[in-house]
């Protein structure tokens, strides 16, 4: 059984775990986590803090999220201090526009979904997520929640080091790939001095401030059925896009029932498909059947790698909008199929393929309040700044989530109008097997996310690390076939042992490729929170 305040061994944390009683906000940017903390101090709850933090992140971390992206949330609402309550899931991912068909993509000259321009743009869900969370569970006025983000956009902020680096990398890529009228606005909005800002330089965006004001004043209605929607529609028509006002007007976020897998006396919770959280659950189900001792045991690491490869190959083949899935969540997590996949793990590295079960650039934040409410929230433009399409005069950078659609008519995730694609962003939540809440966790970073979830959960439960140490510990990631990226810091003998088993080990000294996460764990007996935040970015925890 997980002890919430386990020691930080054997990996020494770069920073100590953070403790608090009355509230905590863990985010990838210090200015954003402070915004959330201030909302708690004003009497807001964990949901209010999450919304305010998320809005601030669209300003101070545009390299990972924006107003034109998608969001998911897992929300624990406490009934009492004894740990009773309920976990709620919100899917605020958007659909493909009605005009975006495989034929239209082919006629535009593409053989697969592109990464930039209008073609991969889907309906954004972030503004609707903020409004819906506030409507159902918030305490403070919606305009109060967005006021700090508006101020940051209007008055400006100093750009942090990691974000400056990502911004400069995006500019270099975009100058090569963004060459049409639809994407010209990106440079006007995000390189107003002619280049990306450097660390410590001041950046402001009045256009985004005005857009956030319109969202705040109308509880996001302007974005979907008002002036902002009309501006998006007009720019799309003018520059050859597929997104229309009718697509925006028809959108609503969806409350969903979270899915879970049992893991050594705990339940690990994820958003159901179309999110890829199912991949993490499938991998943990496979791993639960093995004896696990130390992190540095070659047999343990080999099994982790193989379980993740098997789970991912299934996820990439089958996960999409649930009604379009060939195989159900229940069949993919079923005992018989889990045993079948586990039996494939031998002494050598596999080149995985999907099984056949019985038919049937992102930001993450975590918040908690004095009443025991906790939120696991994630939002993203998918690939860095997204599609490169920025609606003039609004600061709205539109996501490129549609890049994940397949154009193969036999694939579960084939593009179709009004359909939601396979989604990489996933919030996580941990409880004991009796339902006692422990807390929110997440690791942002594209297809690294379920791999990060598996590793931090095992660090907590199997290896006895506290939240900060669980995030600090070196990570690996499956990169396709037998290729494994491994972070600098793993013991050399362990890396050699994996290579001897047939894994193609590729040591990577750049920590940015291994995800960036946050975690808050609540001691059920004392109500004290223990938080960790990612050393691979400019992260921070603010406490009340």
Q: Strand percentage, roughly?
A: 15-25%
Query: What characterizes the major β-sheet?
Result: 7 strands, antiparallel
Q: Return the average pLDDT rounded to an integer.
A: 93
Structural class: alpha+beta
Helix content: 25-40%
Strand order of the largest sheet: 1-20-19-15-14-9-8
Verbal overview:
With 544 residues, this protein is of the alpha+beta class. The chain has a domain at 18-255 and 363-400. Helices cover 35% and strands 19% of the residues. The protein is built from 18 helices and 21 strands. It has helices at residues 30-41, 46-60, 102-107, 126-137, 142-155, 161-177, 184-190, 206-218, 221-225, 227-238, 245-249, 277-287, 298-318, 329-332, 335-342, 449-461, 467-472, 492-500, and strands at 18-20, 23-27, 70-78, 85-92, 157-158, 202-203, 254-256, 259-263, 266-270, 363-369, 374-380, 390-391, 396-397, 428-432, 437-444, 476-478, 483-487, 504-508, 516-522, 529-533, 540-543. It has a 7-stranded antiparallel β-sheet. Strands 7-4-3-11-10-2-21 form a 7-stranded antiparallel β-sheet, covered by helices on one side. Helix 5 packs antiparallel against helix 8 (206-218). The radius of gyration is 22 Å and the shape is globular. This is Gamma-glutamyltransferase. Keywords: Transferase. InterPro entries: GGT-like_enzyme, GGT_ssub_C, Ntn_hydrolases_N.
